[in-house]
Design a protein that fits this description.
The protein is of the alpha+beta class and 120 residues long. The protein is built from three helices and seven strands; from the N terminus they run H-E-E-E-E-E-E-H-H-E.
Amino acid sequence: MSFILDKAYNQILKIDKSLPKKEKVQMAKKIVNSNIDDWMLMINPKITEKSRRQKIKPESCLSIKDNYKVIRSTDIAVEFYDENNNKHKEKYNWSAARLIQHEIDHLKGILISNKGKKLY
């Protein structure tokens, strides 16, 4: 994991110099690193579309010990930069959409305990 974070940090330094002023990566770097089908690094991810269709499902998190029922959109579109400063707009559904929403919530300081109902 340290190797991934070191690589991400070094890429961010490169990207930060090359972005237009309007799109500069802020000091609080926003990174989502997940293993959906293959490792993917999302820098400054932003959910640009959410479906009206939502599903309540149990979620767990390494940040807290309890499980919660959380409602999330089943389909999303996300804009982000990759480690080579390429801008992407991708669509995700079901498990991938849930995972990405969960991780982007972390970037905003939101935990599942803030969003869901605790499972006993």
